[in-house]
Amino acid sequence: MFYRLSWPANGKFATCGPYKPSYISTEHDNCPLCASHIGGRYWEHPRTLAINGTRFPDFLFTTPYPAVSERFVELYKSSGLKGILGFEEIEHYRIRKTATLNHKYYTLTVMRSKMSINYQESELEFGKTEHEHFCPLCDPQRRTINGIKRMVLNEECYDGEDIFKLYTTGNALYLSEAFVDFVKKNHLTNLGIRPLDDYEKRIVL
Ligand SMILES: [Zn+2]
After folding, report:
1. Average pLDDT, the chain
2. Which residues partner with 144 through β-bridges?
3. Minimal CA–CA distance to 58: which of 74, 69, 49?
């Protein structure tokens, strides 16, 4: 069973956004088959994150998201979970004068899974415009996915990754049951997720 990361909307924790960011494209964001740009752009260093609020969670949702706490980074490194290729520090912060932030946040570089979407068993809504470009890996339907009711992945190519992206859905992040259990066990805060088999359900840990 897999989950997709989804922005928590309960307002319990601070929200944030990159402050005057500069973005570049990197090779990591391109499809290995057709070279199309499929991911979000890379946020260049030095980075400044503007945080609005005084309660700082372990998962802070931003672009590229999420930013994760130092505590998450330490716990993840000894967890045996698979999928994160690297952590990158956010150097600077703009926070409220009354707030104290005593740790840094990091962004993630996450692997792309070989798994594809099972279009027969999924319930998806597609954009009306057919793309001129076709690629069996990154755009097999020649359409953008606009809505999800249920998403089924073809698991015969599953390599055991616990956090991953797909070639077909840009920067969306997917999580395994083991990843969600790890977050629960360590009481990490503010992870918003939706189960792929019941996508209308929102869960915030
Ligand atoms: Zn492609």
Report:
1. 93
2. none
3. 69
